[in-house]
Amino acid sequence: MFVFCRFIQFCNYSTNTSKVNLIKSFYVQPHIGTMSKVPRVKFNNGREIPIFGLGTWKSKPGEVRQAVKDAIDIGYRHIDCAHVYGNEKEVGEALKEKLAEGVVKREDIFVTSKLWNTFHRPDLVEGAIKKTLSDLGLQYVDLYLIHWPLGYKEEGQLFPTDAQGKIQFSNVDYVDTWKAMEAVAKKGLAKSIGLSNFNKRQIERILSIATIPPVTNQVECHPYLNQSKLIEFCKSKGITVTGYSPLGSPDRPWAKPEEPQLLDDAKLKELAQKYKKSPAQVLLRYQVQRGVVTIPKSVTKSRIQENISIFDFELSPEDVKYLDTFDCNGRFCPMTAGLGHQHHPFEHDEY
User: CB atoms < 10 A from the CB of 160, how many?
Assistant: First the structure.
């Protein structure tokens, strides 16, 4: 259930501006020339990721191919994918087209994919990434993530259910899955590996057994759920944070009419007017300035262009702090289907 609270304008937030300037510790110089103007963030393994990319969650088949092509033409060099999105073949077709046209080279494009919950069993991990690579038409992905820490019943549907319609769980421990992730990385099938939707305790468990530490943790992140504690923890461990649903996921399938829409927030709109930018651009700039790798989804060319047009202005430190105060534990993606699973990341832990 979405948790919403009244905005608290006088919370006890730290006055230390290091959080606002977090990105400075990760930034490397943007590439010059035909490459995208988007700055890159350096991982703990020395590799780099564009701080801004195109998300493909909820992009329908028949739409995502053109969206990826438009994004690459506009200057995006980072595409975020996942097997469970059901559209990796179309993403692959778009990549093939742009590579064949010579618009980009393979090394110019950063492609992320994710291991779905039904493939957590260690013997299934390599087959899962090879399926993704086949669909994308690639020899490797730049980043491969465990999509969620909780596993579902293997060797069946992506969303296996019992007679009552309840998701059937797997008891595979994600630390065992991580060892298989390391194995596919060592084979060169993924240049970097990481996590998604993991909480602090779960990350600590991974770090305690890892021979290859995760480079990032991809989580829901926006002003209503700013993840400041998790970001600080990850930073202390040399792990970047990637933020999905940075616009509040207004098109999420389970949205209810009474739930607030982040893009309609009156305070956000007022701030956007101050900078002569759209509310979406302010939200995206907020994340980039915090050092969060940001992956908004769109299939509309004009919005794909608008979203990336955020590198010609900067929010003041005061306004970043002001946006921080919007936080109200407003989680739009609570993973209700996984409630009751021993590895559910949101049920028992603060962050």
Answer: 17
| 20: amino acid identity, one letter | V
Of 120, 111, 118, 121, which Cα lies nearest the Cα of 88?
111
User: Per residue, what are the HEC states of the chain?
Assistant: CCCCCCCCCCCCCCCCCCCCCHHHHCEECCCCCCCCCCCEEECCCCCEEECECEECCCCCCCCHHHHHHHHHHHCCCEEECCHHHCCHHHHHHHHHHHHHHCCCCHHHCEEEEEECHHHCCHHHHHHHHHHHHHHHCCCCEEEEEECCCCCECCCCCCCCECCCCCECECCCCHHHHHHHHHHHHHCCCEEEEEEECCCHHHHHHHHHHCCCCCCEEEEECECCECCHHHHHHHHHCCCEEEEECCCCCCCCCCCCCCCCCHHHCHHHHHHHHHHCCCHHHHHHHHHHHCCCEECCECCCHHHHHHHHCCCCCCCCHHHHHHHHCCCCCCCCCCCHHHCCCCCCCCCCCCC
Residue 159 · residue 216 · CB < 8 Å: no
Q: What single letter denotes the amino acid at residue 261?
A: Q
Mean pLDDT of all residues belonging to the chain? 89
Closest alpha carbon to 226 in 150, 144, 289, 148: 289
Respond yes or no: is residue 85 known to be catalytic.
Answer: yes
- Interatomic CA distance for residues 164 and 137, integer angstroms: 38
For 13-41, the pLDDT digits (tens) are: 233 333 333 333 343 333 333 345 899 99
Token pair in block for residue 7? 């905005």
**CA 79 – CA 16 distance, rounded (Å):** 33
Contact 286, 316 (CB under 8 A): no
What type of residue is 163?
Answer: A
pTM, entire model? 0.89
Residue pointed to by tokens 């909780």 = 150
204-229 pLDDT tens trace: 999 999 999 999 999 999 999 999 99
Point out the catalytic residue in the list 13, 27, 76, 85.
Answer: 85
